[in-house]
Please model this.
Amino acid sequence: MYSKHRGSIRKYILLAALLTMISTITGCSPASSVDSNLSDTDRAYSGDYKNMELETEVRGRLSEGNGDMSSQEHVDIVIGEAAYSGVPNNKLLRWGISRRTEHQTPAADPGAPQLLKRYGAAYLGDISEKKIYLTFDEGYENGYTPLILDTLKANSARAVFFITGPYLKGHQDLVQRMVDEGHMVGNHTIHHPSLPELDDSSLEEEVLGLESAFEERFGQSMQFLRPPKGEYSERSLALTQQMGYCNLFWSFAYDDWYRDRIRGPEYARDIVMRNLHSGAVLLLHAVSKDNAQALDSIIKGAAQLGYTIGDPQELLPPEKEEVGN
Model:
């Protein structure tokens, strides 16, 4: 099995051979272009934003109300196929939820929660507690993260920030603030690719390469992984769990990653507030001016409704709870 690396991630020769065999069976796509001559740190810093697809940050369903639950093509069937073959299925799945009214827990695709649970992934906290969890995706920096960090500090709230390779390369001052102020820094891969489309070696490079660079600079490991675009497969869940990660999805998101859709902080506050529910994992994109300006009112409004901001560590599987940053 993989474990969190302490030094070179190239120690896993036997595992690599096994995963290569699995990729052959599951028909994974060819490797993305990776320069094997680069060190882990150089590889993480070699990417730039022009090589990343960030126009659509979430490709799964974001419907509000009683949305159609048939779009995922039966995740429960995928689970059954894997159980029959004994090999993790690499069918590309897109995480999506149908938001419900009256602060009810959203509906996930049939079979998806069971698949996530099998591989130590999460999209909800404890729904018996009125807690919500804040997570921010940082594909790139748009100038609003300092305000987000200021607001979290003023409200004594902790969050998870999911960063990419170019973000780590270009904004170590902000990442340092995240670390210093008690937040968790999560893995959003180096180049933001769809993980099921990568072969085993490329997937390892994208995930562990970023962590290696982060750990070298900040002396901490990463506990959470957010699959880019919300795209995953049973195989990608299995491999990244073996690497020591909890894949963290979400129970609320909206189309907040477009730079040309500035609708005002009131819009951001209202859509978040009417979708709060116990155990909510909120995905907010830090590139959104609306989100940054609305965050203080979201936190205070949630408190007025009886919700507290949970510690993201609580979302880790029980066997990982003792492993802190």
About this structure: Residues 5-34, 321-325 have pLDDT under 50 and may be disordered. The chain has one domain: 9-32+62-320. The chain is about 35% helix and 10% strand. The two ends are 21 Å apart (CA to CA).
